[in-house]
């Protein structure tokens, strides 16, 4: 893989950006970027996990903020997501990493005016767990 000469620092910045964008409504696959980063620089496991989690959580909180800015009277796109978030509260954001519904959960949490702190914590735990499992799978 000599042709793919990416420094650890550049790879970590790329991973952070990719994980942030993947957590917004923009399409993206930060899991592949993490896998590539760990393949090229396995010694960067913990910085990669932490930066991917941070970027993905900040992206999720951006979706949360977008939901928060919606007027309360405006209908949310998916009533089912609103019902789930209302019932479970911030812990439902452990699933914020899931494709498609994760973004809706983050927006719904903001729209329902759930407290930002617990939302960010649960979101980060779920997102870290996903990245950690990917890293573990990379070692096999």
Automatic annotation (TrEMBL):
Keywords of this entry: Membrane, Transmembrane, Transmembrane helix
TM spans (from-to): 12-34, 46-70, 90-112, 119-138
Any Pfam family: VTT_dom
VTT domain mapped to chain residues: 30-137
The protein's name: Membrane protein YqaA, SNARE-associated domain
Originating organism: Propionivibrio dicarboxylicus
